[in-house]
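ok so i was messing around last nite and threw this chain in just to see what happens. nothing serious, just curious
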Amino acid sequence: MKRIPREIIRELISSEEFKSTGDIMEAIKGMFAEVLGEVLEAEFDTKLGYDKSERRPEEGESKNYRNGHTSKTVKTQLGEVEIAVPRDRKGEYEPQIIGKYSRNADRMEEKILGLYAAGMSQRDIAEQIESLYGVEISPELVSKISERILPQITEWQNRPLEEIYPFVFMDAIHYKVRDDGRVVNKAAYVVLGVNLDGCKEILGIWIGESESSKFWLGVMNDLKSRGVKEIYLFCVDGLSGFREAISAAYPKAGIQRCIIHQIRSSSRFVSFKDIKAFVADLKLIYTAATEEEAFTHLMEFKETWEKKYPSGVKSWEDNWDILSAFFEYPPEIRKIIYTTNVIEGLHRQYRKVTKNKGSFPNDQSLMKMLYLASINISQKWTVRYRNWDCVLASLNIMFGENYVG
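result:
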């Protein structure tokens, strides 16, 4: 969000002319009126085809020209503001930002961004605004208004983070994006953290074509540069590059591969007649009380299914160290970390917003929509995880009171 420069605020409060907050608010309203006036002047210049400082066209070139201003009162979040609307001789100029018969400019831009965040196309938004308010705007203007949030996205993506996150979930959601004249598949890599208060927080979104250890190391280093010193456990799916990047950036952190993803992956080629028994045997593994019991069930699973489905068995053996990490934690923590359902739920909400988009014109367009959706979703995350006091007590024991507040 843009802010009034600090030096201007200091000048206001130190001036003898301003003896109350009311005086200062009136001054701010005056500043807003001047800014809005400049917007109207820019619109008016475009309409006439020449700037105010330029010589008026000759009679043969144009019969229309400037004809002073009309005073108008509009309602804003600051209250009623008096503005000067440019006027032309032929009466053809009608302001887009404040319609000719409209006297309410309150939060129009926020309404447009709200519709954009809900997944509406630029053309649909333009039609909706015209239907509701009688203000005719172009899809291009909607695009320009949405571009005004780009500095906010940069600020959000680079904001300082907390020093410790007990759990961090990472996953990717894929979209079609235009790139150099062709439509390609790209992924939005999302990192979601659970902080020491037990609340979820979207730490960042990165747009890329393919995941790799180098890519994820860049994400890890980004988190470190923004102040994240300790992560107890990363919860990930089967994307490549996770393990190497995490070990390089956070060597003390544990890694838990999503059990649900692992089940889907290992049972992908199991025949229909075997799938029920196959999954039932897998359930004995991940619902065991201890890692020793789970490993015993894994060996029994291997003996039963290795000959028929060797790749499915091998994937559990090869990844056992990151599949069994959650056994080190008590039951109240296991419920949080054994699957990445929490971030998959976030992705489902993203898809609701983006479902009408066949493809995005560029990475920036995709990022704008995911950012706005993230802000809306995060505002609803007001409740922390259940039994968080017990979770925090367990973390205190496991990682030491010097690490957990």
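not much to say yet. The first strand starts at residue 66 and ends at 76.
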